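Can anyone check this?
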Amino acid sequence: MTPPLEAPARPHSPWQLFYGGLHALRRRWYARRARRLPRPVISIGNLHWGGTGKTPLVTAVAAHLRDRGLVPAVLSRGYRSRGQGVRVVSAGEGPLLGPLVAGDEPVLLAGELPGVAVVVSADRFEAGRHALERAEPTPKIFVLDDGFSHLKLRRDLDILTCPATDPFGGGRLFPTGRLREPLQAVARAHAVVLTGAEPGAGEELARSLHPWGFAGSGFTSSIRLLESRLATGQVLAPTARVLLVTAIAQPERFEADVRTLGFEVAGTMIFPDHHDYPEEDLREIEETLADLGADAVLTTAKDRVKLLGRLEVPVAELPIRAEPEPAFWDWLDQRVDELTESSYPGPTDDLR
């Protein structure tokens, strides 16, 4: 059940004010220096540190644009990856790189988005330029993954995801809150999406953010749990005894989802978000599974790309899908139509 959507009061501690001031200076700096690609850019991001349902929404939006024939390409940072420069994670036919080089989320997106190029770079402008020069077919629109705070690249639509369990991140910046930027940064967003919620609450969230400068639209996106399957493709029986292995921001939500499906949870192994799973961890997972007498390791889609083929025990994932309410798709299609019918290709003074 979604908690009451009442935005918190503005923080007054010296640290919060100082940190907020630094963010304001950063925004003003990039407002004059951000670069623009010659195709529309839709950013999907968050103000929270992890666990907002952003990646499933990126997948849903990119697939929707692909199915409309708009030839999207996903631009991602490749967080915690070890690769350098621009990396093509997918040309539309599945992952070409592993998670250590490309990052776990880009590899996940590459596997779930056939027909969509996925390009990674710390500089998303360079990633977009690379896609325009080399991708076939040439992208007509870009989806900027985790792009809300990436101010170096101009965007045409900013979609902000907020988890229904903690939509305001406590209203405070790290370390006493879960926000990356002050809550008034919502004024930059064109829409907020309350993830893990049923239709109706999005409008309430939008109203609650009006005092913070937000003037856009509010929507919800529910999460649908799909069948768990082993690497062989076999469905994992819902009565199976499983060892949960996760390296995500909110592992308790994953465990709750697993239990609702009827799986017997023999044990849990929780690692830091975006964990690389070195060899010693793999051995510990295999030994724990044997000690518990569990049937399989059950993990998230993001963890699966880092574990598959590296464990000598059965591994299954619990796939999830974002299902935005119909009003969101109506809003997005209208905005995209306006963008694609406008003067793009636009100014490209940096494409050289």
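Reply from J.R.: I decoded it. Residues 5 and 204 are 7 Å apart (CA to CA).
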